[in-house]
């Protein structure tokens, strides 16, 4: 016997195998429960296993693991391609306790009592971590067959101490490989139960193979500018910042066509990419300009109101090339009234289940609509140097416009705000807002005394001396977003291995962002030096669903099929919308013949394990073998629209989680 290719010294207990088996494990009376078991012939030909579902699959040389039994034997089958014909081993936990027995490496807790290495059956004699086994028996050729495509065995139940109602957890290693194994690495060993209930057959647990890739899923990942197309990196969000001037060029004329054309809405919609929208009244650049409409400016001047402050920052605080603009007079009642109409127009235009807008950032106020007019003091001590930011009684009116306009649209469009204010969690509509951090990755801006994270958790004194409340743990029910700090420099620094990326991961765990943009790495070439860290971050951001286990009866002659599916969210955030989770049965041609929408609410699926159950109607189905599948549906299209991090994805986007026989 070898342990990872190293020969081990053995001490064998010599006895007559038959006498030992009869003495220690008298044959129990068992009723056969697997229809195919009675006809299984151990000859290396798996054709007699047709209709028996797999209990585990993987993508290596060992692809499929099946189990069955009759009143004498436990039958095991491994199918694959290029299987070793020199070394293969089955690992069996027969006492149902993963903390006792040998802890085989590479899976979860195993607690193995029996090891079948090639045709030799060994009983564990160690303390859990020590490599100590006693030879129990050797299977004859009638009970052990192996080819490069199939390994088939029959182990006497009495030898394993199994009886009616017993359960056994099973794993297989091909040639002691870390990769070529069933189930896949780090997965728990699937359980097979010797059950004689009829109808219903053996309840089985199926463990789909996990896919360790950064998925390109809705509402998460990178959100680059919508004004460019053809980004090398996959993404399902884009950022659209629109100025009031371009949106309403003449009074009452909301130019959606121009906005959508310049931001390529049709292009993005055709690719399933949604928009993060920000409405901007002051967008600094390198040239003198205004971002409020000319008609609005002229109306304010003609009515004797101050329209605002033109500025050109000479302190350098706003950054080279972004120091010139116009800060409007936010206190103007006329400007406030026209702003309300503009926000209402946006909300009305995009109020549909298939809206291109997924998230609206409450902007409007301050430079870049970032809720500040910094720098506040000029080089000669001038106050309100680049415009005055309004007090709460004024700024709250702008925020209320968004609340009133979008409250009833949370099933397709959600609001986020940059600064924690009272209206973010307490308002007359009962609406809770998400939040976004425009300087993600920068440590001082994150959790220093004045940092974004510190303020959301503890409250803060804002830039103009007002005490603002916290919005602690808003991510439990709403989405967190943001963008990388510092342009290209900050982006790359935040993704570079070492202190930069460590800080980025720390901020990800604490503030749980689902997406980052427009300053994002979407424009970097595939396979660039930062790709590995980008992929690591993208998998952790937002949600990342992995189907861990499906449990259901192997056979059923009744009217319903009871299915339980365990899904792990390995991301930091929940899914933002209540999209339906559907369990399906499909015939051999792939057509759906039974389906049920479950009660699962993806908005509650935070990091960790979640169980979804369903009863599929099967009474009218003809006898045969069916695929059991699961899908998260887009409610607008009624089609699968979210990828699980598993193999066996079907062409329409659903995922196979096992087979079932009627």
Outline the structure in words.
This protein has 662 residues and is α+β, with helices and mostly antiparallel strands. 17% of the residues lie in helices and 28% in strands. It is built from 13 helices and 35 strands. Strands 6, 7, 8, 9, 12, 13 and 14 form a seven-stranded antiparallel β-sheet that branches. Strands 17-18-21-22-23-26 form a six-stranded parallel β-sheet. A hairpin with a 4-residue loop joins strand 3 and strand 4 (62-69). Helix 7 (333-349) runs parallel beside helix 8 (392-406). It is elongated. The two termini are 42 Å apart.
Question: How is the topology of this model organized?
Answer:
Blueprint lengths: L1 E2 L2 E2 L9 H8 L29 E4 L4 E8 L3 E8 L7 E6 L20 E4 L2 E5 L8 E6 L5 E3 L3 E7 H4 L6 E8 L6 E2 L8 E3 L9 E4 L14 E2 L14 E7 H4 L8 H7 L2 H6 L3 E7 L13 H9 L5 E5 L11 E5 L4 H17 L7 E6 L29 H15 L7 E4 L16 E7 L2 H5 L4 H7 L1 E2 L5 E2 L11 E5 L2 H9 L3 H13 L3 E2 L14 H10 L4 E9 L6 E10 L11 E6 L5 E6 L10 E10 L7 E10 L4 E2 L14 E7 L1
Parallel strand pairs: 16-27, 17-18, 18-21, 21-22, 22-23, 23-26
Antiparallel strand pairs: 1-2, 3-4, 4-5, 5-11, 6-7, 6-12, 7-8, 8-9, 10-11, 12-13, 12-14, 15-28, 19-20, 24-25, 28-29, 29-32, 30-31, 30-33, 33-34, 33-35
List keywords for this structure.
35 strands, 662 residues, disordered N terminus, alpha+beta, 28% strand, 6-stranded parallel β-sheet
Brief characterization of the structure:
This protein is an alpha+beta fold and 662 residues long. It has 13 helices and 35 strands. 17% of the residues lie in helices and 28% in strands.
